[in-house]
Write a structure and sequence with these properties.
The complex is a heterodimer of chains A (335) and B (277).
Chain A (H helix, E strand, L loop, with lengths): L2 H37 L6 H21 L10 H29 L4 H23 L12 E3 L1 H8 L7 E2 H23 L1 H11 L1 H6 L4 H26 L4 H6 L1 H11 L4 H19 L3 H7 L17 H15 L11
Antiparallel strand pairs in A: 1-2
Helix pairs in contact in A: 1-6, 1-9, 1-11, 1-12, 1-13, 2-3, 2-4, 2-9, 3-4, 3-9, 6-7, 6-9, 7-9, 11-12, 11-14, 12-14
Chain B lengths: L2 H6 L28 E2 L7 E9 L7 E8 L4 E5 L6 H9 L3 E9 L2 E2 L5 H6 L2 E4 L11 H8 L8 H10 L1 H5 L10 H13 L5 E5 L7 H16 L4 E4 L3 H7 L2 E6 L2 E6 L1 H6 L1 H8 L2
Parallel strand pairs in B: 4-9, 4-10, 7-8, 8-9
Antiparallel strand pairs in B: 1-6, 2-3, 2-5, 5-6, 10-11
Classes of the chains: A mainly alpha (335), B alpha/beta (277).
């Protein structure tokens, strides 16, 4: 039995990719959960907001690269991120003014807002494609690895290698900072508390002098920032393709619901639950098993599901949670 | 009921995995305030005079109803179910479209102000239900009560804690976990955080046990002794009249009897028709 090599293989192929993916999902789910808690509907356009934000960031990145500006070992996209966020925030505020506000003033039933968000989703979908095209874009530059396989082998003398991509490390670090900042904002600042108050009791918030439109605007700006950051990190880690961002909506919703809709802490936990399940179920465990049980020669790859089916995992988790713990792991509002 | 609701009912709106079941607000926050006019000579501290009106385009609920509160006094509105007690209070607070009449506070005519601006003008309002932020801690509830203030709120918070010691004990606990009586205390405390010049309570003792009710009445008297005028709607007419400097009996949205609490308690007609003997 070779536990060390098995552990390294596990870290390399399961833990690190899942942690990075989980962080991306968590950031996406946080945006969904915020909109749900404060504006009372599930925003189906969130995936395409991520795509739009990423597209803007990529365009700015290209401009920066053309101007010869870079961040050294870090991706230039980080430098472009603030502009991407600003563009996306402007876009969602415009959408709110043109679409959602109309229904909000009428106090329309929330399902109408859900349907409106589906329309916004298609619109944003097309807009992103017009802006940057339908093709795959790779925009990660700077150093590729923090630790690469050969160095790791030479360093440790183990047979199994371990690679940590810059983008993976960056994803986790940025996610931690963003989540900390968001919780600090919601729990410590007057504006953040006003958002929570509004989410608790709109009338009483109004009677306490909290301006509802200000709360709504702030919510959209935060959601747009979270979406852009999540989208850019996902794009750096893998690649940017508008269609993938439409698809990622499912795991993001699964994460938000698994954690309990409307509960920010739940969104984060849900992101990691979905990501780890997805990676663990689609990973061929043959190599790890080979180290752990040297005598055993199984017939297959020990892969529960092909990677093509990874979205099925989100679906199954979603259904299991809705059946057995409908309010989610962290007591949200989903039923 | 809108056309869409007639056709589709509540379909889709019960699925909490896509829509948040929390009800939307009912107060129209987009209504702008009109100008503040001058008050009239010899007005009481607060007066809602000759108020007629109802909700939205609905029928009138109030008919030429007049409610007044003098400085340093407790005024109560009592009356049978559906008499328009809460509606009268909402009218004074600006949550109702008045067709006739005016509301004047402290020498100003505030008829055209929306509820938010009436809070800024010095009214503290405690709704009957949904009067706290359930997922926030007690302390945060009080902080939100003081949202419009930019100065130091520590003193006011200490005063509220002195008045309601239980809130200090539970200040880190979520307000939704409090008992009914504690919630009402918190709701009153929240309204006091703006340092209002008038406190309006809509049935503060609804749904609490008799012991808690007595305690709440004690606290309310204590607040009034501190010099803050109070306007209160109450179901428990006897107890309310016992502490009232002035009582208004409303019947079908109009003033039926007015007088000091003692006078009305001794009034045969009020006793017979309303207090039950």
């Amino acid at each position: 039995m070779d536990i060390l090599n098995a552990l390294v293989a596990f870290l390399n192929f399961v833990f690190i990719p899942a942690a990075a993916y989980g962080a991306q999902l968590a950031l996406g789910a946080l945006g969904v959960t915020l909109i749900y808690g404060i504006l009372r509907f599930s925003n189906f356009a969130h995936g395409d907001t991520m795509a739009f934000g990423t597209a803007v960031t990529i365009l700015v990145t290209w401009a920066l690269q053309a101007a010869g500006i870079s961040l050294g070992p870090l991706p230039t996209a980080l430098l472009a991120l603030p502009l991407g966020i600003a563009g996306t925030a402007a876009m969602v505020l415009l959408t709110d003014r043109a679409v959602y506000r109309f229904y909000r003033v009428q106090k329309a039933a929330p399902i109408i807002l859900v349907m409106a968000s589906v329309g916004v989703m298609f619109l944003m979908n097309g807009l992103t494609r017009l802006l940057i095209g339908v093709d795959e874009q790779r925009f990660a530059d700077g150093a590729r690895f923090v630790i690469n396989v050969r160095d790791f082998r030479e360093m440790t003398g183990l047979q199994e290698g371990l690679a940590l991509k810059t983008t993976q490390a960056l994803t986790v670090i940025v996610a931690v900072i963003v989540v900390w900042a968001l919780f600090w904002f919601l729990n410590r600042t007057k504006s953040g508390k006003a958002m929570r108050a509004y989410s608790d009791n709109e009338d009483l918030a109004l009677l306490s002098g909290i301006d509802p439109e200000k709360v709504v605007r702030l919510t959209w700006i935060i959601a747009a920032s979270l979406a852009t950051i999540a989208g850019v990190l996902y794009g750096l880690d893998k690649a940017f393709k508008p269609f993938n961002y439409f698809q990622i909506l499912l795991p993001i919703f699964a994460a938000a619901i698994v954690g309990g809709l409307g509960n920010p802490l739940g969104a984060i936990a849900g992101g990691f639950v979905v990501a780890f399940s997805e990676v663990a179920i689609t990973y061929p465990w043959l190599k790890v098993a080979g180290y752990l049980f040297p005598g055993w020669e199984p017939g297959g790859l020990l892969q529960l599901l092909g990677t093509e089916y990874k979205f099925a995992v989100s679906f199954v988790i979603l259904i299991v949670v809705l059946l057995f713990k409908p309010t989610g792991l962290f007591r949200g509002k989903s039923v | 009921m809108s056309d869409a609701e007639k056709a589709f009912g509540k379909r889709g709106n019960r699925d909490a995995s896509v829509v948040n079941p929390r009800p939307a607000g009912t107060v129209d926050g987009s209504r702008r305030s009109g100008p503040v006019g001058p008050g009239r000579e010899g007005d009481p501290f607060l007066i809602g005079e000759g108020m007629s009106g109802g909700y939205g385009r609905g029928p009138d609920i109030l008919h030429d109803c007049t409610i007044a509160v003098e400085k340093g006094q407790i005024a109560v509105i009592v009356g049978p179910n559906g008499a328009g007690k809460s509606t009268a209070m909402k009218a004074i607070f600006g949550m109702l479209d008045l067709r006739k009449g005016s509301v004047r506070l402290d020498g100003r005519d505030i008829t055209a102000l929306n509820p938010q601006d009436r809070v800024k003008a010095g009214m503290g309002f405690v709704p009957q239900v949904n009067n706290i932020f359930p997922s926030m801690s007690c302390e945060e509830n009080l902080e939100m009560g003081a949202f419009i203030r930019d100065d130091d709120i520590a003193d006011t918070m200490a005063q509220v804690y002195d008045l309601f010691p239980i809130l200090k004990e539970k200040r880190r606990q979520a307000a939704g976990e409090l008992s009914g009586g504690q919630r009402q205390q918190l709701a009153v405390g929240r309204a006091l955080m703006t340092r209002p010049s008038l406190l309006m309570l809509d049935e503060p003792t609804a749904g609490v046990s008799p012991i808690v009710m007595d305690e709440l009445f004690d606290r309310i008297i204590a607040i009034a002794r501190g010099g803050l005028p109070i306007l209160m709607v109450e179901q428990n007419a006897k107890q309310a009249m016992a502490i009232a400097d002035k009582a208004y009996v409303l019947v079908q949205g109009a003033n039926a009897h007015t007088g000091s609490g003692k006078e009305l308690m001794n009034n045969d007609e009020v006793r017979r028709t309303f207090l039950g003997g």
